[in-house]
Amino acid sequence: MSHITIGAFSDKGVKQENEDSYGVMFPETGQELTKGIAIAIADGMSGCLAAKVASETCIKGLLLDYYATPDSWSVKKSASKILLATNSWMFAQGQAVYGSDLGMVSTLSALVLKSGSAYMFHIGDSRISLLRDNAVDQLTTDHKSGHKYDKGKYLTRAMGTGKNLEIDYRILEVQEGDIFILTTDGVHEFIAVSEMKHIIMENRDDLNAAARLICEKALRGGSDDNLTCQIIRVDHLPDVRQKQNLANRARLPFPPPLDMGMLLEGYEVLRELHANARSQVYLARDTVSGELVALKTPSSNFDDDGLYMELFHREEWIGTQITSPHIVKIIPPRVNRKFLYYVTEYIEGQTLREWITDHPAPDLAKARDILRQLIQGLRAMHRLDMVHQDLKPENIMIDQAGTVKIIDFGSVKVASIAEGAETNRPQMPVGAVDYTAPEYLLYGDGDNLSDLYALGVVIYEILTHRLPYGKGFSTLRHARQLAYIPATIVNSDVPPWIDRVLKKAVEKDPRERYQSFSQFERDFTVPPVRPGKQDFSPLLEKNPLLFWRGLSFLLAILLVISLLV
C-alpha cells in the first residue's frame, strides 16, 4: 500500500455555516491490495435546501460504502455503483423531504490511491490538481457554465440533481513525491495556482499548515464561499512484490509429503485423488466433523517460487469470495494454520471430461442442463468482477445428483487485483489453448465474453466430441485461418438451429458473439419459428404472461355476467 502524508483545512469563510465536507479512509488489514486509500471532497450547493447534509452524504456514502463492496470489484465498479446509488437517494430525498429538485445537491471529487495508480471520480466544480516536477496540473474539469456570480445555476453537473448521473473517470500512474491538491471552488477561484504551489513548497513538512495558509490566502483574495483544501503527498509506492501479495499466509511452509493415514492439522489423508507438476489433491476426513473433504497442497517443485505461492493462496481467497451451488465450496482455514494448503468440499462424481467420454451419443436435454448450471456458476463469478479464463471439461465436476460445479480458480482474473498488475508486463493466454478465445492472442486480455466463448466450445464438444475449429488457437495465424466446422457435419443428430447457436457462441470476433449468457441460453433452449410456418405451440408455453392475463380477463367477464343474471 502507498504511504502518504495528509494535510487538510476547512473553514466557513464569510458564510454562516460551512457546507463543505471532506475525508480520507484507509483500508482494513487484507484490503490493502484490493481497495487502497480513498480520499474525497464535496461542496454542498449554496442554493439548495440541505447543502451540508448533501455534502456529508456524498463523503460518508462513498468512503464507508466503498470498503463494504466485494474485494474482487474494480475501483471503478465499486465507486461508480456507490455514486449512482447515492445520487438516486439524494434526488429522491430532495423531492420527498424538501419538495424540490434542488433539495440535496453537492459536488464531489474523489481519489483512490491503489497499487501505484490514482483513480479519480468527479462531478461538479470541486477540483483535483497534481503538483509534480514543480508544475501544477488540473486533473478534473469544472462542470459549470454561465456567470461566476450566479452560483445556484451555473453548475451543469452535480450529485442529487436528477435520476441519472454522468461521472468523469480517470486513471493516472503515480510517482513518489506526487502531491495531490483537492479544493472547493471557494479556494481555487480566489488564489492563483502559482501561489498554491509556492505555499506547499514552503511548507512541505507541515501540510496542515499549507492547507490552512492556502485557504487564508483565498479568503483574503475575496472568497465569498466556504473554503476547504486537502493535500496528499505520496511518500512511498508499493513495489511489485507488494502488489502481488494477498496475505502473509502465502509465505507459510509447504506441508510434508502426504500418504494414506497421515494427519495434517486435523485432516486424515485417505488417498490421492489427483496430482500434476503443480499440485496434489487428496481425499481426506475432517477428524472433528467426520466429513469428507478435498485437500489441495502445492508441489514441492515450487517451494522457492514466491509468485507461485502467492497465486496458490489466491486460489483459496477467490473461492472464499464466491457463493454458488455451481462453484466448488472452499472450507475456511483453521485458526493458526501452519502449512500452505487449502480445503474444499469433496465432490463425489466425475469430471465433465470423463462424462463426455462415457456419453458418445449425448442427449440434447442433458447438454441444456449442463449449460444452464455452468451459466449460473459463471454469473456468480462475473457479478464479483471475476473472469474464469480456463473453463474446460477438466475443470468441471458433475456429482452423483447431477449438480455441475466449476472447481478450479488458478487462472481467474480478479478485477481489483488485475488493476494492480504491471501495465508493461507481457500478457499471455492463461487457459488451455483449445478453449481460449482468440482475443487473448490479439489483445493479451479477455472479459466475460471470453468465458462465454469457452462455454460455447465446451457445449460444442459435449455434442460432437470435437472442437469447433478442429483445434485451439495457439498462434495468431491459427486465429485468422481456422474456420468453424458445423456441428451438423460432425454429428448429424445435431439440429441445424443448434449449430447456428453454437457458431454464434464461438465467433472469433467477440462483437459477433452472444452479448449475454441469457441470450445464449434462450436460443439454445427454444427452437426458432421458421418464417412462413405457423407456430401451433400452446400460448401458455409461448407467452405465459399473456395467457394468464387473458384468462383473468375472461374470468372477470364471466363473474360480471353471473352477477347480472
Briefly note the CATH topology name of the largest domain: Phosphatase 2c, domain 1
Strand content: 15-25%
Rounded to the nearest angstrom, the distance between the terminal CA atoms is 80 Å
Q: Please mark out the parts with pLDDT under 50 across 5 or more consecutive residues, or reply none.
A: 148-152, 240-249, 422-426
Mean pLDDT equals 89
Count of all domains: 3
Report the structural category: alpha+beta
Indicate the percent of residues in helices. 25-40%
Using the CA coordinates, give the radius of gyration. Answer: 29 Å
What this model shows, in words?
With 565 residues, the protein is of the alpha+beta class. The protein folds into 3 domains: 3-238, Phosphatase 2c, domain 1 (4-Layer Sandwich), CATH 3.60.40; 244-345, Phosphorylase Kinase, domain 1; 349-525, Transferase(Phosphotransferase), domain 1. Helix content is 35%, strand content 21%. It has 19 helices and 21 strands. Helix 1 (51-66) packs antiparallel against helix 2 and helix 5 (193-202) runs antiparallel to helix 6. The longest helix has 22 residues, at 75-96. 40% of the residues are buried. Mean pLDDT is 89; it is low at 148-152, 240-249 and 422-426.
Outline:
The chain contains 19 helices and 21 strands. With 565 residues, the protein is α+β, with helices and mostly antiparallel strands.
Write the layout of secondary structure elements.
Layout: E1 3-11, E2 20-25, E3 37-44, H1 51-66, H2 75-96, E4 106-114, E5 117-123, E6 127-132, E7 135-138, H3 151-154, E8 168-173, E9 179-183, H4 185-188, H5 193-202, H6 207-220, E10 227-236, H7 240-244, E11 263-264, E12 267-275, E13 279-286, E14 292-298, H8 306-321, E15 330-331, E16 342-345, E17 349-351, H9 352-358, H10 364-382, E18 386-387, E19 396-399, E20 404-406, E21 413-414, H11 415-418, H12 439-443, H13 448-464, H14 476-481, H15 487-490, H16 496-505, H17 517-525, H18 539-542, H19 544-564
Antiparallel strand pairs: 1-10, 2-3, 3-4, 4-5, 5-8, 6-7, 6-9, 9-10, 11-12, 12-13, 13-14, 14-16, 15-16, 17-19, 18-21, 19-20
